[in-house]
Amino acid sequence: MDKSDNLVSVIVPVFMAENYLDKCIHGIVSQSYDNIEIILIDDCSRDKSYAICEKYKSLDNRIIVSRNPLNLGVSKSRNIGISMSKGKYVLFVDSDDYIDTNYVHTLVQDQLKTKSDLIIASVCYVKGMNRNYTKLENKTFNPKLNESDLMYLIKENVFGYVHNKLFLRDIIKKNGIKFESKTLFEDQKFVIEYIKFCSSISIDSTIYYNYVNNESSAMNNLPNSYLELCEENYKDLASLFPKGYSDFNIYKNKYVISCAENFFLNALKRNSFINFKNLMI
Predict the structure, then answer these.
(1) 1, 11, 117, 149: least CB-packed within 10 angstroms?
(2) Is 203 left (phi over 0), alpha (psi -120 to 50) or beta?
(3) Each residue of 229-251: pLDDT tens digit?
């Protein structure tokens, strides 16, 4: 088998990440699975991010660096990365996160063993010195036949991000799946569209993606249109299930409460107590 058959394209959108980027890129170039191409898309950063990308490019010929002429946002940057990719597999890593040494190897071996269209890892949420491990259940299932397993992924918020997943590039390219330029939920929209073309999904509970809680992230700075975006997102999730599916109808109440909690907690963080009180009048 030609080595290029199992090439993994690791796509990293980069914007103003100089404080995290060294750790992120070092974790990728240090993978035990070395059959990778690393595509760094700098989104017109004003800090030292682009210089850091160029430094690593000069040290490792597997690294490709592209710089947007103006700030395009994470969705368009990822789409550019997809268009540049050549691998059988596509893996997304955010520039403030990092992956452990055997991360890529484990996901590729899972795919070769199960032949699944999507491989999902567990997640470790990192905030300072604190680590919160969200361990998923090991399972392989057909999302078109096993609504309960699909519902499990929704309840665990697995659809909310692309970074703990190994995708097949052929499915992305043949079906024209792209990231939409949305303020929020662009990851979830991409995952939902991708899953519609999957016949098998596998979860590995033994490997973790390290997600760093960054105060400047979109989920920590919700837009005023957040509740409208939540409603749109709910409709996207519902499109995966038969109309009237009982478990999803039960989930709807929890979803509404969760969205409301996020909205008000975020408002509290962004406004003083007095300003928040004025909002409630």
Answers:
(1) 1
(2) beta
(3) 888 888 999 999 988 888 888 88
